Amino acid sequence: MRWSWLACPAMALSLFLTPVPALAGDVFEGAWTISFTPDNNAESAGAKAFKDAALFHNNELSFEALAMYGFNTVAYALQGDNQDVFTANMTSQTQGSLQWVGRKSGGKVSGLLVWTKPDGSTHRYTFSGGAYEQQE
């Protein structure tokens, strides 16, 4: 069997034009406005409700306000039959760690955030949100 000189470059080019499966079906891609609500135990320990802007882009997750506490951009994993569940872990050198699990349904995202403080205490938050809205 002989290869055509035109077939090899065309096949190579097709490899670059083929979408990456993990990103092609990413239902979270984009900016979101997220509201966080502490559970009763976290609230009793002083945790407050807050809002933050999240960016899911190129399989990475970042938050605007949480970045000020040292929680930098991390990769997230997609799960579920429709790849509509994400999980992620963030660590700050001074503020502990964050464990995320969230689901997208329709145009909304919701889930659970567990914030483990450096002293080992945990604060649980439920979160929900939608497409990014500029805060005034």
List the strand order in the largest sheet. 4-3-2-1-9-8-7-6-5
Percent of residues in beta strands: over 45%
Main beta sheet strand tally, sense and closure: 9 strands, antiparallel
Radius of gyration: 19 Å
Average pLDDT taken over every residue: 84
Secondary structure tally, helices: 4
Shape: globular
Percent range of helical residues: 10-25%
Structural class: alpha+beta
> Spans with pLDDT under 50 lasting ≥5 residues?
1-23
The CA-CA distance between the termini, in Å, is 66 Å
What string, H for helix and E for strand, traces the elements in order?
HHEHEEHEEEEEE
Top keywords for this entry?
disordered N terminus, single chain, 4 helices, globular, 136 residues
List the topology elements.
Layout: H1 7-17, H2 21-24, E1 30-38, H3 40-44, E2 50-57, E3 60-63, H4 64-67, E4 74-75, E5 77-79, E6 85-92, E7 96-105, E8 108-116, E9 122-131
Antiparallel strand pairs: 1-2, 1-9, 2-3, 3-4, 5-6, 6-7, 7-8, 8-9
Q: Could you characterize the architecture of this molecule?
A:
Helix content is 18%, strand content 46%. With 136 residues, it is of the alpha+beta class. It has a nine-stranded antiparallel beta sheet with strand order 4-3-2-1-9-8-7-6-5.
Characterize this entry briefly:
By secondary structure, this protein is α+β, with helices and mostly antiparallel strands.
